[in-house]
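Kindly inspect what follows.
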Amino acid sequence: MTKRFTIFGLLAFFCVSVSAQHKDAIALPTAKFITGTNDDYQKISFNDSQWKPIKAGEVWQTQGYPDYHGYAWYRFHVVIPSSLKNNGNWKDSLRIFLAHVNDVDETFFNEVAIGKTGSFPDDPGGYASKWPSVRTYCLRATNPLIKWDTDNVIAIKVFDGGGSGGIFMGNPFIDMLEKTDGVFLSVPSAEIKYLPNEKAAVLLLISNSFNTIVKGTLKYAVFNAIDKKEIIARQEEILFQPFDKKIFQLNVPDKPGIEISYTFTGQGENASIPITGKKTIPYILTPAES
């Protein structure tokens, strides 16, 4: 019988983080691979020595299975050193990043299901593709599933309903999650308000999707790329409560070449790779009514 991640309650959970990998990340470049499906393939004790190697990050159609669609399995064997946890800033959770999967996946860590995206054809309700969702699953660092400093088996059941199949459009890896992985910044075009006198009000949205406090520094600037002039340059110290959101309104010229750039850098135990972004602001070409 298939073991489910609810066995461990909150010790295994889905995390929305998709940011860049952190220091000491463990790459998962290749896996053992087989077409078809069998519940035994998820088991730690299963002997996969006769399975063929496959590159993770490239569709299986280019690796010897040009016309295959349907079920298949990937199995990664990986030693996870305890130094990975010890060298992390937060030391809270292990992240398993599997890039994109076409179309459905169920992921097992040492024989226990830790996440599923989409529905297989034999599931209640039938097949539902979740392409192109990014697959990121996390385990608490205290989860007894994790075998530090020895072999772990990550088994992934995949169903391809057509087109390209497998794990691709990214390189899978394992690392330790950091608090800033839950921070997201955006400048949504739908929220821009165009004002009289060639002005526009733009919103910079920043949110914390994790149930933890995050501290950091937000730097943002408005730049006129045509005139090569900086219009606004500001710095804000941010203290996020769990699931907190903050909004900054920027009043900018409504003209060509206006760019907004932003960087969020965590402080102290929240330190990690800075989150950066840039957006060119759309402008109105239609002349005002006479």
